[in-house]
Protein 1
Amino acid sequence: MNTSHKWHFFRSGGFDQVRLETGEDIRALAELDPKLWAALSCPVNNLEFDRKTLEFLDIDQDGHIRVTEIIAAVNWAIAMLKDPASLLEELPQLPLQAIDDSSKEGAALLASAKQILHNLGKGGVEAISIEDTADLTKIFASTKFNGDGIVPPTAAADTETQTVIEEIMTCAGSELDRSGSQGVAEENTNHFFDEAHAYSEWWQQAEQDANNILILGEATEAAKTAFDNIKTKVDDYFTRCSLAKFDSHASGALNPALASYEALAGQNLSAVSEQLIDLPLARIAAGQPLSLAEGINPAWLQAITTFKDQVVTPLIGVRDRLTSEEWENLCQKFAAHQVWLDNKQGATVEGLGIQRVRSILSGGYQDKILALIQKDKSLASASDAIESVEKLIRYHHHLFRLLNNFVSFRDFYTGRTKAVFQAGTLYLDGRSCDFCLHIDDVAQHSTMATLSGTYLAYCACTRRDDDTQQMNIVAAFTNGDADNLMVGRNGIFYDRQGQDWEATITKIVEHPISVRQAFWYPYKRIGKMIGEQIEKFTSAREQAVQDRAAASIADTAQAAESKAPPAPFDVGKFAGIFAAIGLAIGAIGTAIASVVTGFLSLVWWQMPLAILGLILIISGPSVLLAYLKLRKRSLAPLLDANGWAINTRAIINIPFGTSLTQIAALPPGAQRSLSDPYAEKKTPWKSYLFILLLLGGLAYLWRTGYINENTVDQLRDRVTNLIEGERSTADEAEKEGAEEMETVEPETELVPENEVDEVVTTTTPAAVIDAVVPAAKPAHAE
């Protein structure tokens, strides 16, 4: 790397980016090591950048802008400007005084800029804009000469030359002048006069052998045309007559059959009917001459009349009949003329006629028109620089912005303006996503883009007022959560021109969005799991109840038919069910009581630490994993998938990512009413009353002796007796052979006796068991 220039860098996106702040920075850009450029290549498509400027930059027209092309554009722009620092101003107009006219190219460019302004009627203006060079037709509309080597008829001062130019355009073609008018160039002008000379020389050959070629003088051409019109048909007639003379039996066959006329009888006929044109010229007979007055096929009558007047009468005298010998004589008279026609020269100008052609040649118009063309070409240097003027104007306005999106990503990471690859803003789910890219192929782009570690939503966008306008974008969600993001959701996308598009999510690439989402994710997952389990359990119990109801109805109907007495209510089993439920509630209560007792036994300053530790245990792993992933989000795969060649990692860290997606928030100073008329009505007094009644009841039972140290033992014995009584009842029923008696199975299986004893004596609070088995009496009553 050349160190002759002192560079300045800034750190952003996890890499060092060059800071372009002065004209000298731009002048020395060719010295900057390409390894320090943010990008090495970018496509000309899917960029929010001036399209015409990209065409100027893409020298090889391969659809990509590369480092060498950027350097070539910078060097050329600096050579055309007095001060390269003017590129930093990004002005839409180019001051004429900023153009460096010390070089030949610069002088031509300045002259062209002034000529453009003069042609547009802005001779006193000191700056030229892109709009001034946009329409070449407008620039040269009032000029006769514009340097393109094409002169329209209006370029000539006299009407005679203007007429000749128009005749050249008619015979030899025309070219489009920069002014938008049709004109002639040197090539088609020379071609016209070459043809004119050849045509004149060809006619001169005929004039030198007029007795054989121009047998009727100036009328020969018209006579030859009349002769050619009927020659084939007359040859056919005399050949048929000769054949009939050769064999008399052929006459009938050579004339049209009666059936041919019968086919014509039902049609509307005229002298131009094709059916008549194909019939013989006249009736065929052996050795019969051709009548020129009557008996002629109506379709050929006019042509024969013209032939008689223009050929027969002038050459052989007045005739009403033409023999085959006379016909052969006429053909011989036109033979030399036909040879002359076959060698025709200068057909391009034939339509003007020999007299007009010779008039043009004798008028010296070729030199006059070529002089006009040369005068126009003399202004080529200034006029041809018009494209260079437009290129310099566009570079002066747009080039520095491209450098800040190619050499560095200053626009993207500073947020002063949107980068050239940012397509617009997507509004969806109470958020605005500023990091959106135009894409062509969703499947192809997503394959590479998933490596960015960014939560992506691909959207199909359509204009509401025009369904034919469609495009695809990908939006990066870098703030909030993903709870309500799913395929099919709709939003509104605003492009860089402010147009709104209807956007629908078509594909999602899932990655962590924010640390906040990661913190709450475990709790949401647990809540979702519990909800799903409750839903499954509820559905299963509902189905079980329906099945039991159906079975009960069927059993009742069967018992009614058999007149069997209904099964007695099994008190033992019912008590066993409630005893098992009590044991479960007791276990849960004991666990909760243990946790609460342990928490309350802590010193006050240990309590928040305990809560914090619990939160860390639940949310810590998720937050840590999300934090590590969010720190690795990269811009490079997203742009690489769009055809860029990114030269660095270009990290999107957590703070910067948060700035790319804005969450809906009330504006500063806004007032909000917390009164919601449709909010759920809360009645906390019911809960308070229940707790007070429960505590009061427990206190009363303790004071009266219903609950004491022996209560647990008593309830254990009672539950054991109930279970044993249930078993003995079942045994007796089995011994007595009561096969028809229907028994009701308990919904919950009884806990085995040894397990009941163990749980009751170790975990079940006395108050809970007393609540489950209200038949227990105080110790002193026993």
Note: The first strand starts at residue 9 and ends at 12.
Protein 2
Amino acid sequence: MMPPKFNEGSARAALYHFLEQRLASRSLPFTDHGFINQRTVATQIGLSQSYVSRSRDIVRYFEEKANNGYLEDRLAALGAFIERGFRNRTLHYSQGRLDRQQAFEAISVGRKAKIAPSIENSLVEYDRRAFDLGYDPSPDLPPVYIPPGSQRERIYLTIQECIANDEPIWKHSCVLKVAIAKKMGIDQANLTLHPEIFEYFNAKYGNRDVNEDVLDRQVEAAIRASIDQRLVDVVSGKLEHRSLIRDAIPEAFSTAERRGRMQALFERFDREAIDAGYICVRKEKSLRELAELLSTGRFTHELYGTANLVKLREALGIPRLFKEAEDLIEAFEKGNATRLASDSYVAAIDGRFFSFAELDLLGYSAEYVERMAKAFRQSYSELDGSNAGRMHLVLLELMRWAKGQGGIIATIVDRLNVRGSVTDVDWVYVLIQFRDSLEEQSRPRVVRTINNLNRKLSVHGLFPWLPAGIAEGRSRKPLGTIKSFAEVAPRSADDHEKTVDGFIEFIEKLTNANNLSLFAECDRLDSRNFFNALRQDFLINGKEGPLEVIAATRTLIEKRQTLLNTRFKHLIEEGVGRLIEGDDLASEGADPSLYWDAISEKSLSQSQRSRIFREYFPHPDTNDRCALKNCLRLIRDRFRRKAPLADEDGYWFFKNRYQEIATSSEIQSYLLPSNDLMHACASVYFQASGVNLPVGRGLLEKCYQQSQDKNYRRVVGFKTRAKGKPIIYYFEMRSDECSALEVALKWGKYLRDIAPPAYKDLMFLQRVGPRIQPINQYGLRTFFKKQRQTIAELRDIPLTPQMWRPSLLLMCAIDNGGKLGTALALAQHTENVSLSYYDRLPLRLMAEIQSRHFKELLEACTIHAIPGGAAFISLDTNLIEARLAEAIDVGIGITCADPYARSSETQLMCETLDCFRCKQMRIMIEAESLSWLIIWRSSLEQAEGDWTRDHPERWEEEFVPFLALVEVVEELMSPAMFLPVWREAEEIADQRLNDPDFRPYQPWN
């Protein structure tokens, strides 16, 4: 038993130490029943008895510890008393038994005490010793112990009076206890404590007219009749008819001498009946029913050859099986196992029996079924029972399915029993048809099992040999992705259905034949996610905002990120304000050295300690919050800012302060960053960086670093899957992200100071009860959900923290014209990693726009070069001319003197765009043409970063020479006669570049 808990200096501690001292000195005060006397303890220690009763765990603890020593002490006292009684002949003795009441009272133990059975066992030994010694009490000593004035004496006198008055208190030569209890006006249960009194009167007065031989014959006849009727059961080698016969002939058991004689009769007749195969009628009937049930075969596990005990008990209507039934079942199971082991249709593996008899019933030949059972056992004898069972189930499923088919499959299956009559091509056809009939989810597993079965059983000639088996035929699974903020719709938008028609018109406009092919996109699950989210947002916001899928997606993500960031920044401001207030309050508190050591002194009296408490921690608190200030100062200076909780040092003092001043969580929020504050700081960082959540949660304190640019800070993370490769993000000093990280760095220091060594270097920590540990995914998810539900616009939208990363990468790709280079660099992915981040509706739409624009221009150029080509393929000539004019408008300001000159065949035009090295290149010195050259240079300069990062070789080979060409042209135009033309060209280029509807030509991929 674990020692009870208590606080030093408390009343519980005083009680514990008092009982501990008394136990050591073997002076614990006990009652007659072997329990600690709580009244005596309360008086001696100066506590109320009710308080001692409420501290039952301490009292019980010392009772358990004292139990063994107390019993030994009482047994020693009993031995001394008995020895003294033998010498002085003062022990009451009747019917071969010492009087128990005298013995128990002599050692001050109640007859219902916990140690009473041990005392009784010892007295039985003393009974034998008294018999061996021929003990004879003193002549003037009555046979039974009758203490003057006791209840026992009153019972004795009452019975004696009834006998003297010849009152009707007898039944079957025994005193009726109920009559005596009624005459005395007491409960009959009180009489059970004095069996010696009743045995004395039964032996002395109740048996005067009883013939002992007649009694013996009556009991013997009753025992024989019970055995002949077979109504009672056998339990522990005895027939259960003792109580029945005792009730019928109670006078035969009224004295100890008679009870011994009758017990010998019972034992003799019970032994004879059991040796002769005695069984009660009820069990015999149950055994017959059990044998019939087992013979039906419906109550056996054929796989194991064992009986189904649960169903058998239900069918028999008995809660548990008796020994004879268990013996019968055991014999049945042994015989059944022997039968199954010798059955030619059964394969025995690892204690299990796999039957193929069903195949015989399906129509397979007996010889084929026998061969299959034998081959299965030989092929899979090394497997354990569960794996062999899996093979058996699939094999039976295949054979059952094949037999149920018609046509060519039925013909093939009918020839299986003839070795070599089925070709491998035919068998492959059967297996493929079986595979296609399976559920898609279980198909790969079943096909692997079928291939294994075919490989094993074909060796025995049961199936054709297939070297490679059949393919699993897996269908391409839809790409699993984590949704972005733009793919989650509110759960309900019923209040805004009035504007749904406008959104439907918007989508239909985008999905017409002359626009994007969104009809095909609508079948994709991730596209439907985008449509649902945009539709719901459209319903909620009416017709405000951009009516274009890509722009709407970006707007939706930005709006939801802004709402969350606003909430996070509010929590950070609130949490930091609380901590600053806590430091200010603690600074105004009293120095703990003035009182803490004094009140911690154990020798200090309770009144002195209370006086110091109230001097520094008044209750109720004063207007200037003196108690709160002193409490915060004490926790800050002596407990490293961590308010003690249960089972921690100092909790004995703060437990009451939490009740008087403020709760522990409220006090703690003044000194240590709250979990909401740390989660908010982490969330701002996660949402802005798009970092993997496991990487961000493991961010180290030293990972927040200075940057080469003084206006920026960099954050360096490490990803295990990237083999330690650093993951670096840059944030502007004035950004919300840097502010959040600065807060986590400054105030999180107090959490790191008290954290376990393994967590001391982490940036983001949280408190979980008394422990300090890193923020985890569950806490972050709970925090995120709680904060989302405080924002009215997001309350019904099931956003999660996992959506931060895909949202940021999607935004990055949208902002870079649909190109993935920047998003890949931000995520630090290679081109073949995490396609799910980038294969999303807005990016597919942007790629389709660019691809369609390029194809239309290519179509126009190709058809224009063929005289009459447009009319030949039924295209509008004006449309081709318009597209070709657009191609000229977005050119690069270079014309070609002879487009056929670079081809070996004069019929083919030049198909390359390396004009910078071609002799046919011409540049017109006029503002319109030069403006396109300037625009082309602008496009190249904007794309330089992407190309040098992703394709540096192609950049050096194909586009750097163009930049050099434009620089040469600009230098040649610098003389005074050409400079006005160049400046006019720059003005035209600036006007076009500033036009929001203008799309300059971009470097090709």
Note: The longest strand covers residues 712-718.
Protein 3
Amino acid sequence: MAQPEDPKLFEQCRVCIICTDSLPLESAQQLAAVIEEYGGEPLIHHSTPTKEETTESTHIVSGTINFETYDLACKALIPVVKPSWVHTSLQKRKIANPRQHSPDPRLFLNDVVVTCGDIPEGDKDAIIGGVLAKGGLYSSRMSAMVTHLVDLTVESDKARLVRAKNLRAKIILPHWFDDCLKLGQRIDERPYILPDPEILRAGPDDPIRGNVNKSLAGASTPEPAALPTPSDDGRMSVFDGKTIMLSPDLGIGSRLLDSIETVIKQGGASVTGNVNEADWVICRFREGFVYRTASRLNKEVGNLAWLYSLMTFNEYTRPLSRLLHYPLSRTPLPGFEGLKISLSNYVGEARIYLENLIAAAGAECTKTLKQENTHLVTAHGTSEKCTAAREWGLQVVNHLWLEDSYAAWKLQPVSNPRYNHFPSRTNLGDIAGQKMLDRDVLEMNFFSSEDTKPSSPQPAKAEKNKNATTMQPPAEKSRKADKKAATTMDGTTESPQANGKGRKAAEKKIQTPIRSRLIPDDKENETPSSTSSRKSKEAAIAHLHELAPDIALYEKERKRVGGVIHGGRRKSDEDRVRENPKKRRSVDAEGESDTEQANEAKRAKKSRPAISMHLLITGYQPWVGKGKEKKEDADKRHLRDLGIMVIQDARRCTHMAAPSILRTTKFVNALAYAPFIVSTDFITECLKQDELLNPAEFPLVDKAAETKFGFSMVKAIGNAKDNKNKLLKGFRIYCVDDIRGGFDAFKSIVEANGGECLLFRGRLALTNPSRREESDDDDSDMEDNESGRHDVFLLSSAESKHARLWPRFRQVAGDIKRTPRIVRVDWLLDMAMSQELKGVDEYELTEEMIDQDEE
């Protein structure tokens, strides 16, 4: 606790405390007393604070982000923190870092305090960095505050302390953090808890349990079927004092409309038909005058499902916090039209939610999986549907791909590892429905316009009200104008053409170049076509003046080495934009508060040189073997200090180091990208001499291996540069399931060279490439790879269990009018290493070779 000599800890803080179910009035009063005792100015609110009270606060204490002015607080850079922020500040005797106490669910580790046991140093640094980035805290010591001890065994000193003192900390495998960070979501810890973690003892075919997903209650459908029954314990406080507008586009009958209005009025709210007077607007679609006007005026805009949810639970939630609580779009999500998506392993509310989300995105959700499907969305990777989808070459992803695409209103690439990661003992249906919408994305796609002050649609009331805004065109015309308003790639702003008889039909669009943004208003040369147009231009110019410091800073950052996406601004920069001290009176104290955590979590690092090479390493003996992890981590940091970035992805490598020519997956994949290949002596000497040596002095020379494998490495590198990863373009190569080396290894080699590799288990038919796929290839590729286009290949061995699949492969290949070629893996490896196409005759397998193959 804070000491008596710190009576003014919160002296510069004006703290607004919001009472919620998770922060009742009694707890709020205790917090307020503590804050006031230590010099702060507390203010308790039983509901959402006003805009003025929000912007005048330095901190907002709330157990949730579900209050109406949350977005305003974020834009004003006012931190929203949980009550634990007050307690931590008192314990540390300085203002704690607000990020570590944020109630934002996107910081999904915000209630985690982690310490590490006997795990490798590299894993420890990665876990600490990930926890801090996602809102958690790190403790170097085992204390009562720790919630998770990361360890590999219960026999470590810290684990024994936890068990001896019966502390609340969970002893957990590092795999849990790895899976959470890969998914970007917090998953259930139970399968990872020591001493008997389920992920280590369960078999691959054991069923995976699912938990009840409480976050989807009332949020699984955008169009609920029936009005919920109001509670009998009095009126609903969630509506108290609100003015609500029910948009005409809801399309509901008069009887249901009367019932909804009755419930709203019983809850203490009023109903209006004027969008300007409304606090909340209920719409069905993301279009029309009412929707755009309410959105531009920063009203709360939700759909009927959101309204019903408030009635059911009598607790306020932001409509943006659930994907299906916000109005739908009539037009499909770009890239989703024509997609056929099937679901697997999702049950209950999670399945209903995803079916509705697929429909809302404009795709088709199919009950059964067929070869005509394009995607399979699955909660885990062990089901018959998953096996069939992979054999058919369909995209197998988790629901995060669907949610991220919908929230960003942009088709996300399925190659993102986040979308094809399936933790071994977790049903991802447990975390469905946690994605939130981004208002900036919605504004850019659905209600972007220069005119930010649209008016009431009632002309009679507008004339009587002196403060009413001017009349706007009808909704249809306004929608057309919105589509014409856009911001071009070079930064110019275009305004929509004016409609109406009083405006010239041929009026040109107004463009404001970047450089003209900084000139004064009184020197702006404009010829207004109407009063409303002039006001729009003046508002736009005023907004551009506000952006001038950011534009100037961007230009400076763009000229810096690394550009605007690398590095950051330094405090010593002369033109660094500084925060407004009036709004953030406690910013200095907050910045200092993070020093303690930073010192515990990170070492002070000297300035590193720029990266001069991306090095892929394979077969480096000093790093091979048990117990070498710490040496490997230390050597990698040493190499980075010399300007060498050690990477694992062959696509990014500029150099590759190996002790000799190897047939490892790394080596073979990297050859397709034509890196400069050096001996591992280069690594040893750089570490020994503590300087970056010339890699040209350490070329990899291995004539014996070149003779053995029948190729020249110098020639292979030259071929790779010419091939540009298209050596196998047009080839469709199948692979038996349990081939030595593993399907994933051969799949990566084929794809690195531009081909397509699929799994074949003999139960399913092959698919024929579409004409579109064939027409997309260059003519030169069609000539070079002609044989690959008319043949289908099966990588196999001569073992009898593999030979049983050969007749089926020949049959299904004939069904699609392709020539079946069953070959040894040497055919693929020899082509990948020499970067030359080779005939299959000497590699082809026949029944006479069964059990006689060298493999």
Note: The domain at 340-437 is CATH 3.40.50.10190 (Rossmann fold).
Protein 4
Amino acid sequence: SNSTNEAFNSTIAVLLDTGNLVVRHKSNSSHVVWQSFDDMTDTWLPAPGMFTVEMDPNGSKQYIILWNSSMVYWDTGNWTGSSFPNMPELSRANTYPNTPYTYQFVDNDQETYFTYNVTDDRILSRHVIGVSGQTQSSVWVEAAQAWVVYFSQPKANCDVYGFCGAYSKCSGSALSSSCSCLKGFSERDPNSWNLGDPTAGCRRNVQLQCGSKGLEKEKQDRFYTINSVKLPDKAYTSIEGTSNQNCQSACLNNCSCTAYSYNGTCSLWYAELLNLQDTIDGSLDNIHIRVAASELPDSRTKKRWIAGVAVGGVATLGCAVIALYFLLRRRRRINSMNLGKGSLISFKYNDLQFLTKNFSEILGVGAFGSVFKGVLPDATIMAVKKLEGLRQGEKQFRAEVSTIGTIQHVNLIQLLGFCSEGTKRLLVYEYMPNGSLDHHLFRSSTAPLSWSTRYQIATGVARGLTYLHEECRDCIIHCDIKPENILLGESLVPKVADFGLAKLLGRDFSRVLTSMRGTIGYLAPEWISGEAITTKADVFSYGMMLFEIISGKRNNMHTGTSTYTFFPMWVVRKLVEGDVQTLIDSELVTDVDLRELERVCMVACWCVQDSESSRPTMGEIVQILEGLVRVEMPPVPRYLQVLAEGVKPSEVSNLS
């Protein structure tokens, strides 16, 4: 009718940033005819795609993620009555503690389903399964103007089935994964690769020579080896391969065989290679990839050519050519070093000597070695740390460094390479132009950090430690959190440094740490009592550092000829009195958000509780600082009084 057409022509539909689809009048935006948020549903749409999330169709009580509607690459594990084994977020009486989210799983004779509710209307949440094959849950953080992921499975893209496609290798960590074609292969669909979708995989540059028995040996297919990998799927065991040579022959004599691996048992692959991964645990598995002979030129031909040149030349000219060859090779090797591209560089010691001008420009001195400035030919600056007193063997050191190198996070210093030659152990890091946090907090030569910057630094450090404690494949305890180990980038973005030393040095680190100068004020009580150390030791150290971020001074402040103030006790007193404004660094001239200041003070006091069970996790601290979770007034930590007594007993009585 005319009235219907008129109504239709006078309205518009708008999809808001919140996800709400609103139908409203064109001339009056406040006049809403209908909006999707008023008609919410509880149904996941069964849309087709390469990746899907669903209840197990075989009847088991678990959720699965499927690749191509056929291959299960992740599952929650069967419901135990209180939790999913592989999904702790759905445990603890079906709720996620201390957050505005509620989960529930229902399983009975009539139905099986789960519910996910956001109990706080101010929180925006979404759950997606992306083109990468990961399922993720996120919340919108207004302060950061970004979606923040708080749950994802699988943790690493490399664990997604077929993520890199055929004849490709996956490398990296949970936050940063990359795919690369194997030698002798090239991208099947370069446009998709350029758009970040490598699932089409790679294809051979030159087809295999089937029936190679009748060919000359120089033209037969060959193999090259990839070491330290997680082997591809769908391997077949061959009883013919009783040795590496027999295993190679078994593959070479079959036109369909594409690769083999031998570790006492002969494994053959007869189809496209899928899910080949670099390992981060020092695995010794290796695989031999079959390619056409033209992809691997005969080394004997090269030797004959070099010998001919040598015989036909003059001896002195030959020496000059060899010397020039090694010089050019060294320059090419240095020029080809591509830092920060996802894989660690194994440096030669003499190369690092050259790049650091024989270690002439020192950036700093730490407990376990000195740090020097190095510059690549492309002007990339790096920081080279010479480790001292490290007694690890070559193999163990390389395995540990390989693990640390895969850890990438915006708030963790990135390891770019290493050197291990005899007793020489060096680590190569990204260069941080603004130095360490202590330089900005405690030295008068620099302008004081604004409150917003300090709050950003406190939150960033908490995010970095959360990643080490909760999101790495192996939980890493830093063991030495203090301003000296927090480095600042160009925009003063904080990065936790030296987090790998705890893993490299192992338990010996604790004995060294307690005698380290300037660190005793950050140690949790359990270090001194000799109890087992957990991630809560880092939480304690983080809390002690928060006090210094607030005041801009060391916790043990000398305020006169005979007067000392133990700042953490002063914070406790001012919190009780409701006068936190007097705690902030007196040099700050910009406005301070008193709600943020009070929040940081309370977090710091919770972090330094005597019992580690009373301290929050770093993940909970991040949520508090981001304003997602409220924090209550903490009890007075008794341990602060013990520390204060070590400074000045009379001062404790004055503050108590």
Note: Residues 92-98, 507-518, 558-563, 646-656 have pLDDT under 50 and may be disordered.
